Write the structure tokens for this entry.
Amino acid sequence: MAQSSYPFDGQTTSETQYSQFFRELQDSGVAADPTASDLRVSGDGSGMNVKVQPGRAILRGHAYASTAVETLIISAADASPRTDRVILRLDPAANSITLAVIKGTPGGGIPTLNQSDTGIFEIALANIAVGSSVTTILAGDVTRQRRFIGSRIGVWTTDLRPTSPRQGKLGYNIDSNSWEFWDGNTWRDLAPTVTWSTIDGKPTTFPPSTHTHPAPTWGTVTGKPTVFTPEPHTHAWEHLTNAPSTFTPATHNHHWDSIQGKPGSFPPAGHTHGYLEAGDTISWANGSKQPHSRGVSGSGTYYAVWVRGDGGFCRNTSSIKYKENVRDFEIAPEGVLALKPRIYDRKAEVNEAGEIEAGNTDEVGLIAEEVAEHLPWIVNYLDGQIDGLRYDLLGVALLPVVQGQAKQINALEDRLAALEGRLS
């Protein structure tokens, strides 16, 4: 078998060799976007003719260009309807690519294109429906048939898919708005949507394996609620049994603003104030130099305690009954992710005895000034200067980050499941 290679310097490359080489790099078609008007064929009712817009195309490695609207004559109508084709025709013998009209057979089908490997090669631009005895070609008589070139990834409609694709040919189908490829036998969706109805070989029923159930008891019921909140309702007092004769109030408190008829002032009764004398001592809880015990043992309700800017104490409450004007608060996840954990040493201080006391070392936390650049709403100020952080609000700030990551994980799991379904 003779061998050849081309193109090289000092070598003659034939037209046929060039055409065969170039068609491996680019398909034949119109060199434009499918939404553009390049080489678009239309009828305007002005007679037995159609108009072809300017444009460029490539046919089997040869280039074509038109810079003006071209008018093509359609042969007179016959007694029976027919379909003509507007085409671009490559004629290597004539060294030309020209617009042409292939007349159809009355009462017959669509004319066949001539697409030889080295001779005449034609591509369709439009089909023209020529009705019986008509004298004009209207816009509705034209069916566009343009194919478009691409970077080896084509764009087509279902009816205009490549006629001789190679296995693995990829393209975008504008009818189905989906990517598809040629598997050697048929066109397949590149990323099909998997639903229960599209799964092949699935069982029609799912018979349970042989098993038994123990006699149901309350203890064997899983997923049962721990409480049963009653619906809103009322009871008549006379229907109650063992109703108490008195009602000792439980431990509770009243908000000052809710008290009616309270006095405007409280004159103090006669009293005296004692003073600590020399030798007097203060009794501290647990010997800890704290006014209250640090422990939380025993029954009762415990609260986190806040210190106000004026030195007052208050408990950390969160019930809706203490709140109003509730609304959503947008938190930028990138602000949270920008925070940097730090390790640091506390500066030395002078204690009550006038002695210099070294600060703690290797503490871990955040720097308030750095946090203020991203989450200023959790920074505390004292006398107009940055002082501390509301570490208890970091959990709130983390919520959108965790929620966003959860959505991303769910989306990735769905995509992975779809890919695994296709591979299996």
